[in-house]
Amino acid sequence: MGGVTPKSGTVIVLGSLNLDVLLRVPHLPRAGETMHSRGLDFVPGGKGANQAAACSALGTRTRMIGAVGADDGGTLLRAALRERGVEVSGVRTIPDSASGQAYIHVAPDGENTITLHGGANQALGEAELGALDAALAGSRVLLLQLEVPLQVNLQAAQRARAAGVTVILDPAPAVPELPREFLACVDVLTPNEHEAQTLTGEADPLAGARALRRLGVPAVIVKRGSQSTLLLQGDRVQEFPVSAVQVVSTVAAGDTFNGALASALAAGQSLLEATAFAVQAASLRVSRPPGYGHLPTGAEVGGSC
């Protein structure tokens, strides 16, 4: 299949921007354990910003809507997205708030744990919804996550649905439930296995996907890491195998998947094609170090569509 060109429709990402503090550790911390880090890096992140950067790297026009603090982290975060080609006029600076931060422990096998401090991400409100209203015309996809206030996400999904824009929700971080009125405005829900189980209580990924479908979501994609990816669209189940790669880091792999999915859908691909494209992009991402400079491009994933 093809990749994505800048001629495809615009993707809007409304969500979080965080300064990621990466700690390279010998293994993931256990309760009560103190350990020395083998390395320390500061890189731009946040699920929203990561997804916007991944989408733009694939050649899709991408607008980021969010907030940062009036600090060095905020300056870095906005500049990093601009350098990746993301439109950042919708990223507001909040004077009395720190930028969001994420503390990420990364083990030698690439697995990680993350602790978040929301900061400015928790201050999103009417200003961001106004920026969304202005951006919806001419856009094809709105991509949401759960690192910003739920009410803002709900209103954003409702406004996008009214405008005929496809809504993708990445339900992360995991929550035990989401309002039905929110799910009613979501076209594609993309939990990983843990998030699907948290939302439904179902340990089996397919059973979890079906439980989410019963809540009214037309399509559910369950990301299963190195195992496979499941797509449940209506009553149709499709499993996508994951290419065997040498894993360097799983940081932002799910975000790359979502950015690629939005990118392909904005280019007019079917959900089946877009999911296959996203699986390829995420497989490439885990074979590389963290950071926006290592994001897959459309040519690397599969050419132009």
TrEMBL record:
Keywords: ATP-binding, Carbohydrate metabolism, Cytoplasm, Kinase, Magnesium, Metal-binding, Nucleotide-binding, Potassium, Transferase. The lineage of its organism: Bacteria, Thermotogati, Deinococcota, Deinococci, Deinococcales. Homodimer. One of its GO terms (molecular function) is metal ion binding. Its cofactor is Mg(2+). Pathway: Carbohydrate metabolism; D-ribose degradation; D-ribose 5-phosphate from beta-D-ribopyranose: step 2/2. This is Ribokinase. Its EC number is 2.7.1.15. PANTHER family: RIBOKINASE, SUGAR KINASE. It catalyses: D-ribose + ATP = D-ribose 5-phosphate + ADP + H(+). Its main location: cytoplasm. The active site is at D255 (proton acceptor). It is found in: Cytoplasm. Belongs to the carbohydrate kinase PfkB family. Ribokinase subfamily. Substrate binds at N18, L19, D20, G46, K47, G48, A49, N50, E147, D255. Residues 11-289 form the Carbohydrate kinase PfkB domain. ATP binds at N192, G254, D255. GO terms for cellular component: cytosol. Activated by a monovalent cation that binds near, but not in, the active site. The most likely occupant of the site in vivo is potassium. Ion binding induces a conformational change that may alter substrate affinity. Requires a divalent cation, most likely magnesium in vivo, as an electrophilic catalyst to aid phosphoryl group transfer. It is the chelate of the metal and the nucleotide that is the actual substrate. Pfam families: PfkB. K(+) binds at V251, R285, R288.
